């Protein structure tokens, strides 16, 4: 009667051990929300990459009269400087996405490092780093960005660094919690007993385990960063020489597109931002869900939405 | 750990955070930016005048002495003087605060009510068309830049509703004889509606998503099953047993978000030229009026800290099981 009497049966019952990464991929491909999000992101990244090829001239070139409504010559009309809106949107894509991805990478790097060190070493390092995180969390991000941008000048690098330096706190907390649990697993202890040093333990045994979570978190951070860029630019603190979607929204506002009833100049750049942020949020959340084992056990969702009050950031963990 | 310890701990943490915030405020504006005078566009100023001003403001002293002077001023409620108007920062910012508060209150109230209703209904009707519609509308508003939503309001909503799109007061009001209190009130409200609605819609997306997930969690609890087995109506289960318990995380998250809401109104007020704290910040950036910017930054940081503390204490009040 017992299963051990038949070794083959045992083998059948045992679920295949799957790598985390494989699991993530499978879960994502089953989730319509993730597929939609990834498709959106893919299209926009492709657009940004092809942007130099698609544009035959500087997108800011005056090609028509001011605020020309959409026509066959200019599918999305022209802006307050008489430039073609479609060209501006295509030209703005790389800048917006670069800010988004670069700033997210910076904050994933800081947050990942803080979380890893804090969770792995524990003790005094942990206390010190988490205290620091607690303080950074209460600084209102948007005003700080404004202040730093106003004081240090308005280059693209500055904007990326400011955004990156503010948004790492959630990542740090998330990674720390994960590292703390991974560190206690038997295989890590075994590796340590076999004489593995800290560098090897982190690089070889812990980092690969937390990497998928870090990536999911980074995708969500991209959304925050793109948002923050539109915000800084809207207040006139963006890099004046570059075209980005945030800048197009600002231009529409300062050039009085509203008085000219030029809805095409206002609606399109914001729509691009909204769609990309939607894509990031859907992908990131689907990834986090796929990585959360609790979701597969319970019969109801336990997902929590992170607070992002307007441009703010806060973690609900 | 007793409740008293918990409250004490939170208070100490809040106090420490205030110290850190104040220090950061000093460091950012004094040490990193050079001094305020070099930033002030002062073409006709002679070097003697600049030196005199520098001495007056204490900028020729060591950083440590300056820091102590700054703390001393703060303790006396002195935030410095605006570089433009020579008025004290407090008197410059106070009217803005009074304008911002009712607008933020209106917007937040709207978003909380709508967020709870939509969140509860979507969780209740999980997996249906209603759920998907609510979820995607929430995600949609959550993804919109507030300044852009504000511009859309001006373009598409203001005309249809016949609402003013800028300022806080009709310039013609009170010209033909004194306006009654009622007229003034209505005028204020009409100017407040669009910025408040913009703020409310952006927050709504977020609150609806939070309420939905919190409700989903609660509706999966055993006591909900028990309530169902007792034969209670769906209505009673959802509102009395579900929402009551789901409110716990909602209340704290909303309290936490309030601190950031004020910061978030910056672009909205700019779009609607609504003379609140946000517009004051924008103008200060424009005119390089650093004392105002510094004062506003301190104010916004303190509001976040206060609301964080409120959230912690509320959570403890609502759920005495908290033991951290």
Alpha-beta content class of chain B: mainly alpha
Oligomer state of the chains in this structure: heterodimer
- The percentage helix of chain A is 55-70%
Helix count, DSSP H or I runs of 4 or more residues of chain A: 13
Q: How would you characterize the overall build of this protein?
A:
The complex is a heterodimer of chains A (317) and B (324). By secondary structure, chain A is mostly helical. Chain A starts with 6 loop residues before the first helix and ends in a 20-residue tail after the last helix. In chain A, helix 3 (32-54) crosses helix 4 (85-121). Helix content of chain A is 70%, strand content 0%. Chain A contains 13 helices and no strands. Chain B has 324 residues and is mostly helical. Chain B has twelve helices and no strands. Chain B has helices at residues 3-32, 36-39, 47-57, 63-75, 89-124, 129-142, 146-161, 181-219, 222-229, 234-271, 277-286, 290-318. In chain B, helix 9 (222-229) packs across helix 10 (234-271). The longest helix of chain B has 39 residues, at 181-219. The mean pLDDT of chain B is 82. At the A-B interface, helix 5, helix 6, helix 10, helix 11 and helix 12 of A face helix 1, helix 6, helix 7, helix 8 and helix 10 of B.
């Amino acid at each position: 009667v017992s299963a051990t009497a038949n070794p083959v049966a045992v083998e059948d019952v045992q679920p295949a051990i799957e790598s985390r990464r494989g699991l993530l991929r499978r879960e994502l491909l089953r989730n319509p929300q993730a597929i939609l999000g990834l498709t959106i992101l893919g299209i926009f990244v492709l657009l940004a990459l092809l942007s130099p090829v698609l544009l035959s001239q500087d997108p800011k070139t005056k090609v028509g009269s001011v605020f020309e409504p959409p026509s066959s010559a200019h599918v999305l009309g022209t802006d307050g400087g008489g430039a073609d809106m479609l060209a501006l949107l295509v030209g703005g894509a790389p800048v917006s996405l670069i800010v988004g991805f670069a700033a997210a990478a910076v904050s994933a790097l800081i947050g990942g490092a803080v979380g890893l060190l804090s969770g792995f070493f524990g003790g005094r390092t942990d206390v010190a780093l988490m205290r620091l995180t607690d303080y950074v969390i209460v600084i209102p991000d948007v005003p700080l960005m404004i202040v730093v941008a106003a004081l240090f000048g308005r280059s693209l690098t500055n904007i990326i660094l400011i955004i990156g330096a503010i948004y790492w706190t959630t990542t740090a907390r998330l990674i720390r919690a994960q590292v703390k649990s991974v560190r206690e697993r038997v295989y890590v202890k075994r590796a340590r007993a076999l004489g593995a040093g800290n560098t090897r333990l982190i690089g070889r045994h812990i980092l690969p385990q937390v990497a998928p979570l870090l990536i999911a978190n980074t995708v969500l951070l991209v959304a925050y960063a793109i948002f923050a860029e539109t915000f800084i630019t809207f207040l006139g603190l963006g890099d004046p020489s570059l075209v980005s979607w945030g800048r197009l929204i600002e231009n529409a506002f300062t050039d009085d597109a509203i008085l000219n009833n030029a809805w095409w100049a206002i609606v399109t750049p914001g729509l691009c931002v909204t769609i990309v942020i939607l894509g990031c949020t859907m992908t990131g959340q689907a990834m986090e869900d796929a990585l959360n084992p609790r979701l597969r056990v319970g019969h109801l969702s336990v997902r929590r939405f992170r607070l992002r009050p307007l441009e703010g950031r806060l973690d609900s963990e | 750990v007793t409740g008293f310890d918990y409250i004490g701990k939170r208070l100490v943490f809040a106090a420490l955070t205030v110290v850190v915030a104040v220090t950061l405020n000093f460091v950012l504006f004094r040490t990193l930016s050079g001094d305020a005078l070099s930033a002030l566009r002062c073409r006709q100023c002679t070097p003697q005048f600049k030196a005199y001003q520098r001495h007056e403001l204490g900028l020729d002293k060591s950083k440590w002495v300056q820091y102590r002077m700054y703390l001393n001023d703060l303790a006396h409620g002195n935030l410095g003087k605006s570089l433009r108007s020579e008025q004290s920062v407090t008197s410059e910012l106070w009217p803005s605060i009074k304008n911002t508060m009712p607008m933020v209150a209106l917007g937040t109230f709207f978003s909380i009510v709508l967020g709870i209703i939509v969140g509860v209904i979507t969780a209740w009707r999980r997996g249906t068309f209603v759920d998907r519609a609510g979820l995607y509308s929430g995600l949609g508003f959550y993804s919109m830049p507030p300044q852009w939503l504000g511009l859309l309001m001006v373009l598409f909503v203001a005309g249809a509703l016949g609402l003013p799109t800028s300022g806080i007061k009709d310039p013609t009001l009170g010209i033909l004889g004194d306006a009654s209190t009622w007229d003034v009130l209505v005028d204020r409200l009409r100017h407040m509606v669009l910025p408040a609605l913009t703020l409310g819609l952006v927050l709504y997306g977020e609150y609806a998503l939070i309420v939905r997930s919190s409700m989903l969690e609660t509706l999966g609890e055993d006591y909900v099953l028990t309530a169902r087995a007792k034969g209670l109506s769906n209505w009673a289960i959802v509102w009395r047993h579900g929402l009551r318990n789901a409110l716990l995380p909602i209340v704290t998250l909303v309290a936490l978000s309030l601190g950031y809401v004020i910061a978030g109104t910056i672009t909205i007020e700019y779009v609607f030229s609504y003379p609140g704290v946000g517009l004051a910040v924008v103008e200060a950036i424009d005119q390089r009026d650093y004392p105002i910017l510094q004062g506003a930054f301190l104010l916004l940081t303190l509001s976040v800290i206060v609301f964080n503390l409120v959230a912690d204490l509320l959570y403890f009040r609502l759920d005495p099981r908290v033991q951290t």
